[in-house]
Specification:
Blueprint lengths: L2 E10 L6 E10 L5 H9 L8 H12 L2 E8 L2 E6 L1
Antiparallel strand pairs: 1-2, 2-3, 3-4
Amino acid sequence: MRCKYTTSVRALCPVDKKPDVYTVEFTHDLTVFVEHIIACVKTYESEEITQEDLTQNLSRDVGCNVKSVGWHSGVKTEVWV
């Protein structure tokens, strides 16, 4: 079985301090409770963090593979762990 959960994550860019919104996918071979994903995502709201660090941290916090997609100065950025 493969499970995929998709949500949006808002965080602050550490360079220009503006809000960034990422589309984030969580994948796992087992069920992950969405309440756990939501709780982990909320810890990064309004925090200054790079997309790369956010993706790595969410993978560790939720305990599954994570892919994030965002736009920075017109450049689409995809990060996965």
